[in-house]
Design a protein that fits this description.
Belongs to the annexin family. This protein has helices at about 170-180, 185-195, 200-215, 215-225, 225-250, 260-265, 270-285, 290-295, 300-310, 320-335, 345-355, 355-370, 375-380, 385-415, 420-430, 435-450, 450-460, 460-470. The chain has about 475 residues and is an all-alpha fold.
């Protein structure tokens, strides 16, 4: 089996020349997922199952309405086409669209940005703030006058309100206590209990441990273990949301700033997840996340992250509009290659406020129009180190989020020494969504010609090694 990745073909018109491999030959099996423009796989589809249809990929049907590229082509996973509204490519998912753990299939964005002088500015605050979050700190960006409301992307598991699930955590809570009680610690039992829980289970397990044994699970883990093994167990026991806020605080507390942690946690997130992170950060540390980030960053990089923390990114349900994609492509060109110097904030604004389908469309259209990869353009332009890294993460997440995670994992292991905190946190974050982890492992094997868990084994040892291998989904 091999990881196929996002198809290189256009969602309309003929595909660009193949790069790094041929096109897929067999038609995909018929499935019933919501259609996703620009070749995005639905969250529950395996990359190994995807193959491209034999016909000219993405050729629009004859006689499209004026001003449109025509009906969307057959998508990679065989979803039936829907008639888009006039002037738009794709359409918001219907109200009965199924819930996906990593969010619904993505579509494009809504309103065009304002005229010159206010390009790409975030719209006004959302109608509500979950988790009791304080309103976002105002920035210098005025709201978009033509913003269109679309159904909000649901929060990721573990970032929404507490949910009741048909699972009893008491037996596992007792196993954890037994593994740490008395002389010695049963490290393998700790791994077996903690490494296979989903976000909802881990929160219930932590609460059950406290109620049944009148003890704090995280404090007990810290007292019984050490080093990176301890840190990995604590990341699992906290669950995704609580761990995010602790890692953010530690990345900014004291001298220096761990910019990689800020990038990993704050970029690529839905509006709902960002609002949950800001609210939880305020609850735990009695500080505003925006204020703390502003104190750690400076100048244009600070402004970039303030746009991100505004949590006004286009929702996944917003449609892709061809005219808006073309305008974004031209604006990026005029802000980079088309002038002397670089208008960094224009590029930051576009990549921070568009959803994945829009970014994928922008990347494709940029290559079609200017015969250069947008990834290469960002690397060669006059962006600072941290800003450049952040923009590349935003772009690569939009074009192939699984391959991006594979590359970030390899970056944590490449070279002299292992960046253990990044490796552990990135593996833990990937494992909360099992379908996501499966695709990340396939992407890693496709790019680096070895299995992820074997690479991890070569960089670690002892209980720490066994923990990370178990997080990868392998038996210990």
């Amino acid at each position: 089996m091999s990881y196929q990745g996002y198809p290189p073909a256009s969602p309309y018109g003929q595909p660009p020349p193949p790069q790094g491999g041929g096109y897929y030959q067999q038609p995909p099996p018929q499935q019933h997922h919501q259609q996703s423009p620009y070749g995005a796989p639905p969250p529950h589809a395996s990359y190994n199952a995807y193959q491209q249809p034999p016909q000219a990929y993405g050729q629009p049907p004859p006689g499209p309405p004026p001003g449109q590229y025509g009906a969307p082509p057959p998508q990679p996973y065989g979803a039936p086409a829907h008639s888009p509204p006039p002037g738009q490519y794709g359409a918001p998912p219907p109200p009965h669209a199924p819930y996906y753990p990593s969010g619904p299939p993505q579509a494009g964005y809504g309103a065009p940005p304002p005229h010159a002088g206010g390009y790409g500015q975030p719209p006004g605050p959302p109608p509500h703030q979950p988790y009791g979050a304080p309103p976002a700190t105002p920035t210098t960006y005025p709201p978009q006058p033509y913003a269109v409301q679309y159904p909000p992307t649901p929060p990721s598991p573990g970032y929404g309100p507490a949910m009741s699930i048909p699972w009893n955590p008491d037996p596992d809570a007792d196993r954890l206590r037994k593994a740490m009680k008395g002389w010695g610690t049963d490290e393998k039992e700790l791994i077996r209990v903690l490494a296979d829980k989903d976000p909802l289970q881990i929160n219930l397990l932590r609460e059950a441990f406290s109620k049944r044994h009148r003890r704090d699970l995280i404090a007990d883990i810290k007292s019984e273990t050490s080093s990176w093994f301890e840190e990995g167990l604590v990341m699992l026991a906290r669950g995704p949301l609580l761990n995010d806020v602790h890692m953010l605080y530690n990345a900014m507390d004291g001298a220096g700033t761990n910019e990689d942690i800020l990038n990993d946690i704050l970029l690529r997130r839905s509006n709902a997840d960002l609002k949950a992170i800001k609210a939880e950060f305020s609850r735990v540390f009695r500080r505003s996340l925006e204020e703390m980030v502003r104190g750690e960053l400076s100048m244009k990089t600070e402004r970039h992250f303030m746009i991100v923390l505004g949590a006004t990114r286009a929702e996944d349900a917003a449609p892709v509009v061809k005219a808006d994609i073309d305008r974004d492509v031209d604006d990026i060109y005029n802000a980079t290659e088309g002038k002397i110097g670089t208008d960094e904030m224009r590029v930051c604004s576009i990549l921070s406020l568009r959803n994945n389908n829009q970014i994928r469309a922008i990347s494709y259209e940029y290559r079609q129009k200017y015969a250069r990869d947008l990834d290469t353009v960002i690397q060669k332009q006059e962006f600072s180190g941290h800003m450049k890294d952040a923009l590349l993460i935003q772009l690569r997440h939009g074009t192939d989020k699984y391959m991006l995670q594979a590359r970030l994992l390899e970056d944590a292991m490449a070279g002299l020494g292992t960046k253990d905190r990044l490796l552990t946190s990135r593996l833990v974050r990937a494992h909360w969504d099992r379908e996501n982890l499966r695709n990340v492992k396939n992407a890693y094997e496709q790019r680096y010609k070895t299995k992820l868990y074997k690479r991890v084994q070569g960089e670690t040892s002892g209980d720490y090694q066994r923990l990370l291998v178990a997080i990868c989904g392998e038996p210990i």
